[in-house]
Batch of 2 targets.
Target 1
Amino acid sequence: MSIVSASLDHAGKPDRAFNAEALDADARREARGMLALLSLGLFLVFAVIIVPIGWLFWLSLFDEGGQLSAANYARFFEQASYIKTFVTTFKVAFTVTGACVLLGYPLAYMLSQLPRRAASICLIFVILPFWTSVLVRTYAWLVILQRKGLVNTWLMDLGVISQPLPLANNFAGVVIGMTHIMLPFLVLPLYASMKTIDVDCLRAGMNLGASPAATFRQIFFPLSLPGLASGLVIVFVLCLGFFVTPALMGGGKVIMWAMRMEQTTSLYSNWGAGAALGVVLLAVTLALLGLFHWLLGTRATGVWSRR
Amino acid sequence: MTKRLCIHGLAIAGLLASVAVPASAADTITVASWGGTYQEAQTKAFFDPTAKELGITIKQDTTNGLDDVRLQVTGNAVKWDITELGADECARGSKEGLFEKLDYNVIDKTGINPKLVHDDWVGISYTSVVLIYRTDVFGDKGPKTWADFWDVQKFPGRRALSGSQATETLSVAALAKGIPIDKVYPVDIDGALQSVDKIKGHIDAWWTSGAQAMQLVKDGEVDMASIWNGRAGTLKKSGAPVSFSFDQGVLTADCMVIPKGSKNKDLAMKALAKFVSPDLQANLPLYVDNGPANEKAFETGKIPQDRIKDINSSPENVKKQVLQDPAFWRDTLVEATEKFNNLIQQ
């Protein structure tokens, strides 16, 4: 008995070790194979993202005389307009994201409840503006919203107002114009996630006596949150870099960060002045994404991570 | 066999052709300007006649201004042989060493304001910043001077000024303080900023492009504005109820340069000499409201008498206006613009 077990032990140990080694080697080979498959993508990420951003950061460290300096960053604190512009940018981004959620959620919910055919037709109307130039849509809003535009003319003809409402060339105009452009970016991921909600879960809730409102609140809404969070993040981040709409709808009074970059790039002779603005926006955006991730878990960044 | 020979023959012909192309490329230059109706006018006034006279090909491109030149020169990828810029951009680019020296043995500078004749850049045309107002609001009793524009009691109404061209807005702000046109330069920047501070609460839009200024006035979004004379002229011609004059206008020059590292420098010099010659300069006002930089153009007899009064750089109109000084803005632009932005971006 002891001899048998001893012999088994003697024979088994090297076998197991051998197997483990072979398995490890196999796993390593597989990992290398996988990496090789990824290499083209990794190279692209390196070449078109890491290198240019690194270069941007490098450029931002040099002043107009080509000397290493923090002048490009110090400017943010010396000139009041930079901080002001930065705050405006985030104010616009938050407001537009909020407006998109308020308009987009009910819209996406309606789309998700419609029969497939009707939903596809309605979706076309959501996607249609995508195919129209941002510039054209912004000018269209200008025609609608300005003092002698459609809205004000109608309201005044109807006697609702006696003075035209200030809807264009100000903050309100920028928010309206940008919300229109951003809405599909919220609705599409939200709709997609709402469609994946298992109807049986809702039926089960109703079956157990929950009212439609309670079913929505306790089952549907929490399940739609991942889609809402990813839509929200896309809209917010896109808003931060907006140029055309605020430039045309803001009447020069709503200056966003991208407009500031354009001004700074043409004003200073060194690329670093503009580059520093890009670096700061990137850093703050990444920090905010980190915050979203922390607050909402993987949901917010779910577009990028495994679901 | 014969087919193969034939292919060889074609290949050789192709090779010869490809050798021949660079030879003819030496007779081609590329000129960049602002595009739009202005560049179309320049094509008819300057580029086509020059190409014909010198027997060369002039290719065209459009520019966004000094950044583009800077990008090409510092990146060692100069694709333009001549490009247009605003005069203050020329002055700044010159300080940065972005341009080739001009040869005034080839280019005749007679008739061009000495302030626009420099080692490495030369004036090409003028734009004016003028005060425009809507006649359906004010009749013909609208604001005529910048002091009127600043007087919100006497002339209530909605106003727009340029938010992107600090130099121009500071110049009109100085005029609004009552400074006579020959004393505006050198601009007292802090004084002009105080003047902007007084009006800024009454400004409904700070425009950032010529098209925007035009749209604001055309759609009645504002009742009065500062605007470029070309845009003002277009509005008037299209039948909009507007009025403007060159009184207290601010004349800003455009200039042309040869970017450093241009491959056809000598030919570009000859072409540039043609562009600024009185004969071709006189063509410009036939197509567009931007006046010629060479005042000898008015002596050629090519410009009809009734057209002269509408041209911002005619001797009569020049007397009514302030000439913006590029050398002044070369040294003060950055600081003044930052201060201006701090003031209006609040």
Target 2
Amino acid sequence: MGGYGDVKLLRDDGLRLDGRKLDEMRPVTIEAGILPAADGSAMVTHGLNVAVAAVYGPMEAHPRKIQRQDRAVIDVRYNMAPFSTSDRIRPGFNRRSREISKVTAEALESVVLVERYPRSKIRVEIEILAAEAGTRCAGITAASVALADAGIPMRDLLVGVASGKVEDIVVLDLDKAEDNYGQADLPVGILPNTGEIAFLQMDGDLSPDEYNLAMEYNFKAAAEIHEIMVDALKRRYEGGEN
Amino acid sequence: MVELVPTLLRQELARLAEDDLRLDGRGRWDGREVDLEIDCLYNAEGSAKVVMGKTIVYAGVKFEIRTPWPDRPSQGSLMCGAELRPVAHRKYEPGPPSPQSIELGRVVDRGIRESGCIDMESLCIVPGEKVWGVMIDIHVLSDGGNVFDACGLAAIAALRTAVVPAERFDVGEDYTLKVNGTPIMASFTRVGGRYVFDPSEEEELGGDERIHITLGDEGHLHSLQKGLRGVFTPAEFAEIFEVAHQRCSELRKLVATQEGN
């Protein structure tokens, strides 16, 4: 959190700079099955974010030391394209992308029925083509649609969504300015059908009440995104094989 | 992933070649349909997406201010890199750039650089102090064969849409990058003993060596590359060179159409 208190993020009419209400999400579109080479894939646009996910597998897990006798491991790579941000990112992993990859993998392992595939590996590749705050959430949503598109059984879809705080007020789905100058960010991965949480991070400053409200916003948004995910998968399979 | 020797595929491709046929029904010199989208990425100063059959490629242009090389104080720089990331195919492993990605990036880079379409002097801000570094990054999202042509097309199309972000760097007003020309690559692979244009994934798997030709607006050669194991004759080159001419001008027209010309 940048914490520059003097940047104005709410308008006098109580709306946000881009005209959204406090609990209003940026527009989300989802398309499943967009990458012909992958076993499953999806593209998610969330505001100006563009996240693409590809799934390969289940396949033999190697190197062997990553193998688990009782379940599959999920190998996630979250990567930002060099041109996805205002300043070019040098290609290759950094500490941020490694951490996001790790916790995303663990979240997906909590949702996928990994015990169905002992000793195997499921590769999930998340590529961010354009970034405008909230890429990890868009990536989680894309990954879960791609897993479903690959026909991999899951307990539920996993929805990535975030709320935060700007000018001491809790808002849903931070955009770039709100992320840069806001006071808190609470990205989560929600299982909308079971009401569970598989991904959780937070930074900034939230009171317990603010946390509860932010989480309430997140669940509301997750239900909305879930519908769009289901719709994307239906469109994919109603159209038949392509 | 270890690729199994595709003996059966090779046999089938050889059998088809006897009747001058291809696996997907195309003629020997036919390319797949090309879908080009320009200026399609937020945050990139120039961008393009190319879809050719099962191949999907994005290219994005970014600028940075750097100090010029001491021997060329008034020249900016251009760099083009490609990544065959694991997202693109199950055969690609994570890790540092593979020799294939490096070859791919460098062949595209040479075609654009050597065509002279970017005047390096025009990238100078303050001689000896500040120049623009232009970076084209190519992201292969799906490898369905012939990523070279897809990358070459995406790179030049993205470059041609680029806007120099001078305001953001506090060195004047934004302006459209001047690009003089549209160098285009055409690639051929030996399949069943003879060359075909725009190889598919199966043709690359069951084929032999490949040749990449980049031609400028005037039909001049700007970059050549032979890859993989195999040899060819001058007569074979003459034949594919003719085809390259035609296909490159068609693709150049496609770029112009997308640009609204």
